[in-house]
User: Fold this.
Amino acid sequence: MYVSHLSCPKCSKTYESEALIQLCECGSPLLVEYDLEKVASVLSKEMLKDRKPDLWRYLELLPVKNKNNIINLGEGMTPLLHLKRLGKEIGLENLYLKDEGIIPTGTFKARGAAVGVSRAKELGVEVLAMPTNGNAGAAWAVYCAAAGIKSVIVMPEDAPPIPRGECAISGSELYLVKGLISDAGKIVAQAVADYGWYDASTLKEPYRIEGKKTMGLELAEQFNWEVPDVIIYPTGGGVGIIGIYKGLKELQQMGWIGDKMPRLVSVQSTGCAPIVEAWEQKKTESVFWENAQTLAFGITVPKALGDFLVLDAIYKTDGCAVAVDDDQILTAEEMLASREGTFVCPEGAANLSAALKLQDEGWIKADEKVVLLNTGSGLKYPETVQVEPPVLEKGSQLPAD
Assistant:
């Protein structure tokens, strides 16, 4: 393992990496720092060609010390699809989709869970607890089951039913709360204080980011170490966009990519857009969003602990933040499915809505290479597709057209 220490992005305090630490004493999330010069001396791009196509191919840039602690269900190296039909139709012929819907548990949350749970196992964690909007809890429950760690999951009672089932069948201790993820978070925080459990809430442990950053590492590798112009990402807790930015910065420091950095776009719903509001007001932190509600349930996060890190990534890459409404999301979901055969989650569909808006405003140019990062499978959100096909009598003949 090439981890050097943990660092606080707010107060710059450092911590020893082998201790079981959650947040900095100032309350900020902690980031994992590596000896990148040493990593570059032992790892080359050529070496990756002989490694398995999963996120652990980047082991030197991940925090697990002993390979025996790795919980691997096949996560990582998801497809990068060139959306040729749709791109031609809308005038963005270099439009791509990185599809996270095909990895274990059906969402990108498996990346954070794989690394987070593996590291928790290594550090001796026996019980962990977390609030979730659904998919993160499902992923952590599954990986905890494989690791032999007890998981306690609390989610809003309105969370989609499939993640609930994933938690239950994986043996997690599952609870529903009348409220939002922020209300679930308060319950988990109290339990952590009372029982000494490990808090796996978003950004309250340093290792989920490390799993999510592999999306950035993969994109660089899939584009032959030349980054795209724009990466569009749906933002709830914001760990994905924080991780992608961190991973690309590490590749820059190793000399694997050039000085160019993709413009990062944070996408939220008009029903819950604290990051967008903060970006529009040029603030460095967001304000709690009251009465948050959207069908893109995974991005219903009224106030993210790492909002300042999301905004910093946007500002430093000359990116932006965009809010789209639920009707636009459903339209985009249908466009992706009918033109490209990709059934994406509503959060992923929100990216296309944002791309269309930014293209119309001239922010995205026709020749730019644009990546939509779909964070999960549409199969986990069957309620977003309502169909009533005609019912035929036995022996009926189908119409010619």
